[in-house]
Amino acid sequence: MGTKVTRRGFISGSSALALTAAAATKGTDADAYPGFATEFVPHSKSFMDQYYDGIMDIVKGIRDTETGVISRAMQKAYELRKKGGSIVSGRRDSPYGISPKRP
C-alpha cells in the first residue's frame, strides 16, 4: 500500500511546489492595468492639512451663509418671549414643532 496523504501534507507539498516553480521563472515587467498612469505625483499636502482646509471651508461657508438666519431667528424668539409668548424647540418629537401656528 502507498502512504496516506493528509490535507495538511497535500497543502504544504503544493505550496512548496508552487514556490519552487515561481522561483524558477524569470520575472518580467507586466502592466497590471493597461493604460494606467505610470507617472504618479503624490499630493503636495498631507492628509491632515487637506482635512483641516476642508473643515475650515465648511465652517467659513456656514459662517457666511447661516449667521444671518440664526440671528434673525434668535431676534424673533427674543421679541416673542418679551411679549409673553412661548418658544418651542424645533425638535421632531415635539407635537407642536411643525405646527404652522408656532413660530
Overall geometric form: elongated
Query: Would you tell me the overall average pLDDT?
Result: 77
| Terminal residue distance | 92 Å
* Largest β sheet strand count, sense and barrel closure: none
Helical percent range?
40-55%
Uncertain stretches of 5 or more adjacent residues: none
- Using only C-alpha atoms, the radius of gyration works out to 34 Å
Which secondary-structure class do the elements indicate?
mainly alpha
- How many runs of DSSP E, i.e. beta strands? 0
Number of helices: 2
What does this structure look like?
With 103 residues, the chain is mainly alpha-helical. It has a domain at 45-103. The chain is built from two helices and no strands. The protein has helices spanning 7-24, 47-82. 0% of the residues are buried. The mean pLDDT is 77.
Fold topology:
Elements: H1 7-24, H2 47-82
Keywords:
103 residues; 52% helix
Quick structural summary:
The protein has helices spanning 7-24, 47-82. It is mainly alpha-helical. It has a domain at 45-103.
